[in-house]
Amino acid sequence: MSDFDPKLVSAEVLPIPADDLSRDLVVANADGNLPHLGLVGDTYTVLLSGKDTAGKYCLIDMHVPPGGGPPPHRHDFEETFIVQAGEIEATFRGKTSTVRAGETLHIPANAPHQFRNASKENVRLLCICAPAGQEGFFEEVGVRVSGRTVAPPPLSPEEQKAFGEKAMALAPKYRTEFLR
Q1: Residue environment code for 110-141, b if the CB has 16+ CB neighbours within 10 A, otherwise e
Q2: Most buried of 6, 27, 103, 154 (most Cβ within 10 A)?
Q3: CATH 2.60.120.10 is the classification of domain 34-145+157-178
Q4: What is the pTM of this model?
Q5: pLDDT tens digits for range 50-72
Q6: Ordered DSSP codes for 116-139
């Protein structure tokens, strides 16, 4: 049985556009000279931004220590997580599942979700957001750290409150809504 749906295929076949010579090959090294951004206790490294992909998607390497992960939220873009090491608890529309190394989790646009590292080991995820844009949110709210696995500095209660207020204020700009 095939999952092919002929209704999704256009009746008109369009030619493939010419090569866009203004775009270059990008080789990204997660441990190299890329933006490493600390937020909510995690460290996110932007491997490919919308500038690299003509806005089609971004690719983020995520280092999530035990207890890490974002609060419940939803956003108007597709998000895929490829678990490289460890395991996460992912909550999607109120149902929690465990996703382990070697597995991929896809969150459709606008669906409420969150993930967290409920284990005692670090987790490494690759996150794809399509279209691109989420990397801009991380850059605006995160703090630069020196490497892919370097934890952000701990925040005082006042700094945590300011961080939360900044994230909430920026969320609409990046088509994101935090849920309670």
Answers
A1: eeebbbbbebeebbbbbbbbbbbbbbbbbeeb
A2: 103
A3: yes
A4: 0.90
A5: 999 999 999 999 999 999 999 99
A6: E--SSS-EEEEEEEESS-HHHHHH
